[in-house]
């Protein structure tokens, strides 16, 4: 089967280890006792040759080095056909600046996300005569690589941190935070790296899906506060936690999803430790804990 996904980066913003963090997970990763993870991105192909990258992580240079399928096939020939953005968060757009070396590809995003890029002149480094910017409307299906179709849909979330005002709607529905439905020749997959809650519309979309990559930022809502590393809950950051009565593990129980994969995990999340009880709990519920380099066939 040529339709497959490769996790380029399984961690949330900051990666694992995060450069300024001395938490247990980060220290273990520095010592080589648990696998380090780069920042959030997944690549998809429908034919095994042409690839679309979903979200341009700040670690994208290393991710391309580590993924032989994305290596150049000629002097300036590359299997990359497009980059699709699910929001304007720094950990999802900063990597675009690494892709500025006059390499042709297409950036796909909603009008709202393109507006975020357009408002920052630094992204003009991607020459528009070489790098095409295409707007996708919600619920519109677009071919983002040969035979690979993508449909964007709204997901409860919030605007990027750097655009927050005094009052923040953490469950905003619109173009600022989207999920992606990927499909080809009767196979499909969903990519949702950021989600504040599993509402009725989203539940209906995901029922019976073959493969879902889903927001795994925190294990439980007050994780950052309890670790002494922040003052915000997961909900305040616009992320649904894994565990608890309103967590994603519980919410997915009756959705009959064949393969469920957590991605976008914060450096504090205990599931990043292979021997943790939290990881065993997630895996017992049928979840795969995403890791850099992991390949999954829908």
Question: How does this structure look, described?
Answer:
It is a single chain. With 298 residues, the chain is α/β, with parallel strands linked by helices. The protein has one domain (4-296): Ribonuclease Z/Hydroxyacylglutathione hydrolase-like (Metallo-beta-lactamase, Chain A, 4-Layer Sandwich), CATH 3.60.15. Helix content is 16%, strand content 23%. The chain has helices at 24-30, 60-66, 90-93, 111-118, 200-206, 223-226, 248-251, 277-284, and strands at residues 4-9, 41-45, 51-54, 80-84, 105-109, 131-135, 141-145, 148-154, 178-184, 187-192, 211-215, 259-263, 287-289, 295-296. 47% of the residues are buried. The mean pLDDT is 95.
Tags for this entry?
298 residues; alpha/beta; Metallo-beta-lactamase, Chain A; 7-stranded mixed β-sheet; 14 strands; 23% strand; globular
Short description, anyone?
By secondary structure, this protein is an alpha/beta fold. The protein has one domain: 4-Layer Sandwich (Metallo-beta-lactamase, Chain A), CATH 3.60.15. It is built from eight helices and 14 strands.
């Amino acid at each position: 089967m040529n339709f497959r996904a490769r996790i380029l980066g399984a961690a949330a913003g900051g990666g694992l280890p995060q450069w300024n963090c001395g938490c247990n997970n980060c220290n273990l990763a520095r010592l080589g006792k648990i696998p380090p993870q780069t920042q959030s991105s997944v690549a998809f192909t429908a034919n095994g040759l042409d690839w679309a990258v979903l979200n341009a992580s700040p670690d994208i240079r290393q991710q391309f080095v580590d993924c032989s399928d994305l290596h150049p096939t000629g002097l300036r020939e590359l299997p990359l056909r497009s980059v699709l953005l699910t929001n304007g968060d720094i950990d999802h757009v900063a990597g675009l600046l690494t892709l500025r070396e006059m390499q042709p590809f297409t950036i796909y995003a909603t009008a709202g996300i393109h507006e975020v890029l357009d408002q920052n002149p630094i992204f003009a480094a991607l020459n528009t005569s070489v790098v095409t910017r295409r707007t996708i409307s919600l619920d519109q299906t677009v071919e983002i690589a040969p035979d690979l179709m993508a449909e964007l849909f709204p997901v409860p979330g919030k605007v990027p941190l750097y655009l927050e005002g005094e009052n923040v709607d953490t469950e905003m529905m619109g173009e600022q935070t989207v999920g992606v439905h990927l499909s080809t020749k009767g196979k499909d997959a969903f990519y949702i790296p950021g989600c504040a809650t599993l509402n009725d519309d989203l539940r209906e979309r995901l029922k019976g899906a073959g493969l879902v990559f889903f927001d795994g930022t925190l294990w439980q809502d007050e994780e950052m506060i309890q670790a002494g590393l922040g003052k915000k809950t997961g909900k305040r950051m616009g992320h649904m936690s894994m565990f608890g009565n309103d967590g994603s593990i519980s919410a997915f129980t009756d959705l009959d999803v064949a393969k469920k994969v957590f991605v976008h995990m914060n450096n504090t999340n205990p599931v990043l430790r292979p021997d943790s009880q939290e990881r065993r709990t997630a895996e017992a519920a049928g979840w795969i804990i995403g890791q850099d380099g992991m390949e999954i066939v829908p």
